[in-house]
Amino acid sequence: MTFEISRRGKQYLRTAETLLRTAQTMTDRMVANQLKALADDYERRAEKASLDDAAKVLAQSATSAEPEWFA
Hints:
Blueprint: H1 7-25, H2 29-65
């Protein structure tokens, strides 16, 4: 299943990418691993946010497509 990443999802992904870049430059493995785990969490948030945003748009379009006599 493919879907377009929402603006909010893209913000989460940018944060995840920043965290990963920072983790790669760390010499402290413990901190780097924590940053990687946080980046993974932000990637999950990006996917969830995009799916939620797509569902909202779909629900809004379904509501606006109903005939007035049906509402």
